[in-house]
Sequence to fold (397 residues):
Amino acid sequence: MEAHKYLRRLVLAAPLAFTVPGSALAQQEPCIGNSAAITGPAAFGGQAIKMGAEIAIEEINARGGVLGKTLRFVQYDDAGAPPRGVDNTRRIALADKCVVILGGYHSTVSVAQVEPVHAIGIPFVGVLAANTQAIENGRSPNYMFRVSAKDKWVARFLVEQAAKVSKTGKIAFFYENTGWGNGAVPDVKAAVAKAGKELVATETFNWNDQDMTAQAIRARDAGADVALFWALDREGNQLVRSMDKVGYKPTIIGAWGIAGNLGELAGPLANGVEVVQTYSFMGDLDPKGQALWQKIQAKYGLKDPSQIKMGSGIANAYDAVHIVAQAIEKAGAYDWKKVREALYQVRHDGLVAKYDPAFDAADPERQDAILPRDYKLTVWSDGKLLPIAQTPYGKSN
Fold:
C-alpha cells in the first residue's frame, strides 16, 4: 500500500508535465512507443518486445503502412524502475506524440504507468507484465489494455496443473516482494481455495536475495509437494538452489518470470521446472510461427529457437502491433481517444490466438485479449524451455 501511495505522489508531484494542450490531441504521430527493461538482468524482456514489434511494423509498412503513413517504433529503457517508466510514458506521449504505448516486462512499472496513462489519455497495450490490477484498475474509461497473460488467470491455470500432480493436496507459494508478487497473492489464494486444495506455506523474498533456505525448509516441513513460483530467473535460481540444499524436491510450477534464463543460471536444477507461456518458438511450429521465426533469423542473426529468451514477449508484441494497426485504420485517424474506442472493434487471427474480438467494452475482464484457453505449459529441460507435451515430463502429468 505504501508503494502505491509513493507512486501516486511521484506522478502528481509534477502536474505541469501532465498538462496536455488541446491541440496536441489532434497531433499524434505514426509511432508506437515502449518503456521496457533494456538494461539489467531482465533486458531480454525489452529485446523480445523490440523483436516482435519491429517485425510486425515492417510487415505493416510493406503493405503501405497505416492510413498512408509509415509506422515506426520508439523504445526507452526503464531498467525495471517505476519512476523511469513514468518518465518514459510522458516522453512517448508528449514529446514523441506516439499514438499508443506498449507495456514492458515489469509489473511494478505497469502499475505505476496507470496514473500518467490516464492523466494524459494515451492508449496503453501491455505485452508482458501480467499484474491483474494494472489493467483491472477501476478507471472508466479505461485506457489500459493487454495482449499478454493476466495473473488472475495464470493463478487458476497453474493451480489446476498443481492439483493434477499433487499427491498430498498441499501447495506452497513463493513470491517476490514487489507489486507483481504481492499482487498475485490474492489471485493464488482464491485459485487454491476454488480447487479445494491447501496452501500450507506462503513465502516471500526480495530481489537479489541470495539464500532462501529458511523459506524452503518451512515449505518442506509443511508437507507441500508442489511449489508455485512468482519469481524472476535470478531469484528463481536461488530458490531452486536453496531447495536442493535442504533436500526439498517438490514439483515446481511457475509464472513466466522464470521463462528467460533459469536453465542457464540453475543448470540441471532447472530440469522439470514448469512454466506458463502464451507462445513458444521451440518444438513444432505452425506456418505462421515458422514464417515469423525465419524473419527473426534473418533480422537478428539467431541460429536456433533456443537462443530466444521470452518468446512469449516476441509473439505478444507482434500480435499487439497488428491489433493496434487495425484499430488505427478503424479509427480513421492517429488520435488517442478514437484509437482507444476502435480497439474494441478489432478482430484478428493472430499468432498467439484468434482475437474475436480482441477486447470487449462490456466486460471489465476483457481489457485482456489473450484468454486462459490460449495459455501453454512449458518445461525446462537441459537448458531449453520446451512445450511440455514434447518432453518426457509431459508423459508423467
